[in-house]
Amino acid sequence: MHTEALRVGVVMQRRRLDNRWQSHQWRPLEIVADIGLPPGLHCLRDDDADSRWLHTGFEVALYSDEGEGYHLNVNAPVPCWFIMWRMDERDGAEFALPKSVTLSYNEAARLMDGGEQVDTLPLSDDMIERVAAFAAEHYRPEPKRKRRKPSFEGGAAVQQMAREEKGTQ
């Protein structure tokens, strides 16, 4: 089961750095509600010091099997959007292109485990409430079980293992 998809766009920013090894840095700057632009890349600002590009067409839905990931996200110190992005080349220039947006902590962790670049942006209060309500409805933590501590005091099983190691029965 999943919710109706929320359409969003990601604003990526390229800032010039005063660094001899790296001339600029890309980062997600903002998540915006989709305003009806066709999916793709839209220039908001492009100069040497600061470039901003809006990437539209992302759909974010909440899935019941990701309930734990949503629960972990909204209960984190700073609940957030997770944006997976990669560097790509367009017309001879390098661009940071978002590939997916999620609200699941677990999905973001799987992406990072796979070597992907994942950055975060804080969630608004209304999105936190929406995700928290979904998680509360679809996620039930497994009850904690008591674990028996292993006994290192010996006993019949340990004596039997010792006899078997010596080759005597």
Quick structural gist:
Pfam families: DUF3305. The chain is an alpha+beta fold and about 170 residues long.
Please provide a written account of the structure:
By secondary structure, the chain is of the alpha+beta class. It has one domain (6-138). Helix content is 25%, strand content 39%. The strands form two sheets. A four-stranded antiparallel β-sheet has the order 2-1-4-3, with no helix packed on it. Strand 5 (80-90) and strand 6 form a beta hairpin.
Which key terms come to mind for this protein?
169 residues, alpha+beta, four-stranded antiparallel sheet, 39% strand, DUF3305, DUF3305 domain-containing protein
What is the element layout, followed by pairings?
Elements: E1 6-16, E2 24-33, E3 40-46, E4 50-60, H1 67-74, E5 80-90, E6 93-102, H2 105-113, E7 117-122, H3 125-138, H4 156-166
Antiparallel strand pairs: 1-2, 1-4, 3-4, 5-6, 5-7
Helix pairs in contact: 1-3
Characterize the largest beta sheet: strand count, sense, and whether it forms a barrel: 4 strands, antiparallel
In round numbers, the mean pLDDT is: 87
Structural class: alpha+beta
Q: What spatial form do the alpha-carbon principal axes imply?
A: elongated
| Number of distinct beta strands | 7
Helix content: 10-25%
Indicate the proportion of strand residues.
35-45%
**Number of structural domains:** 1
